[in-house]
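Deliverable D4.2, example record:
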Amino acid sequence: MNMQVTAGVKPPPPPSRIEDMNLPIVMMRDILIKTMFRKSLDLVSELATALCLPRTVTQELVDTAREQRLVEATGTVSATSGSEMGYQLTDMGKARALDALQQSEYYGAMPVPLSTYAEQVQRQSIRNIQITRSELTGAMGHLVLPDSLLDHLGPAVSAGRSILMYGPPGNGKSSISNGIRDAMGDRIYVPMALEYAGQVITVYDPIVHSKAEAEVDDPNSLRRHRTFDARYVRCERPTVITGGELTLDMLDLVYNPTARTYQASLQLKATGGIFIVDDLGRQVEPPQNLVNRWIVPLEESKDILALQSGEKFEVPFDTLAIFSTNFHPNKIFDQAALRRIFYKIKIDGPSQKDYLKIFAMVARKKQLPLNEASLVHLIKNKYPTINNTYANYQPVFLIDQMISICRFEGIPYQMTPELIDRAWANMFVKDEEIVN
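Output generated by the structure prediction step:
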């Protein structure tokens, strides 16, 4: 079966010869011999898999290394797919491999030049996505949201620009962010590693990137080329979620002094997907400083990163940035920062009608029978004590509390005014004087 490629996302074509790689020949040769040395590989087919390259390109690299007397043929080797020529490192090749490993421990998948990756980013840009109301509603099906919220949220998501969601805590800002992620159902191609100025930057991260499917060969080709450049991994659009732990240095490249390679910054890993900054205002860094760091990326769709040498360079910034805060924006940002965030959406608590819908939906899911007298008691006697301020988290909290009480008392799941009172007592802490 041919690999299905989502319409609108053109895959990166596999290289057919060394010239297509756009990488320094010395770098490619060194990665080849380091891979042979570290993985003890002697067949071109095995090396092609390890390097994530077509056999033709791998054979060219092997031939180049042979011409330089770094690799020698050992004769025909019987492999599962037939007979192949075997190769091994010469003494000179082993010495060069050790020297190359001193400079960088990186081996395996051949990196993608940053300039080549930038072209792929354009092909799969998040701004190419057009999400309809029905698609967004479907992804938010587990939430009870007013139509007016979707009126604002839909265009913001389709624009693929920055969004600030603000409002009182416990009203689903995080859940809405996750729903936006779920609405993006297509696939993109994430490079395992990038190359810039001879340096390797690893990008693919199994924690961030969900592999969509195993790579397959094209059955219509006698040479069985990959249907896309195997240096990429076909993934769901990534989502990076950070909270109070976010610091400015997490937005920079991470240098590994032992391996002498770099790891991509969080926002570079989120390219083509979503970067969610949850609980903005709870970080050690002032929120103004964090947003200032994003000014250039948000305005110019590019980010500036730096190598250990201090050299700065541009990388694509193609990310839907979602900031979520419980603070009023005017209290944590100046107007210049707010202008650079394209959409500001207030997430209020639900109306009484929507609150009851949420309560019924959660109770049904958790198999807690509804009781009309108990609900009347909750609405008429409890909520007036907090000025009828409803929040989306409250039904889940109250129902979980009642279920826990029923389990402790050894009684069937049930809802009574007394259980409502006991659950309510755990939802708030009273402002009482502490007596020593």
